[in-house]
Amino acid sequence: MSIINGIKFTVMPIYQHYKGEHYWLMGSCQRHGTREVMAVYRSLRTGEDWIRPLDEFNAFITKDGKYTPRFRKCPKEEEPMYWGILYELNATNRENGKD
Known about the structure:
Elements: E1 2-4, E2 7-9, E3 14-17, E4 22-30, E5 37-43, E6 49-53, H1 54-57, E7 60-63, E8 66-69, E9 71-73, H2 80-95
Antiparallel strand pairs: 1-2, 3-4, 3-9, 4-5, 5-6, 7-8
């Protein structure tokens, strides 16, 4: 839990896709019918929301002959530089009726 300007909030982790883009892991949900657990995440570049099976989100892939995670969790020291982006994305989404 973090507090900024007296407002308490939980910062969800930022992940970097193996292709370079950064995403905010917003949470998880279950797929209707199969009850498969899905990761729900938002692009920090475009603000688009995505879902993907959690097992796939956490999977390792082979890139250039190296075994690497599909999504790498960014270290805590990298996260603050994305908070402003997240704030702007959320404000824009609220204005557009998305949140």
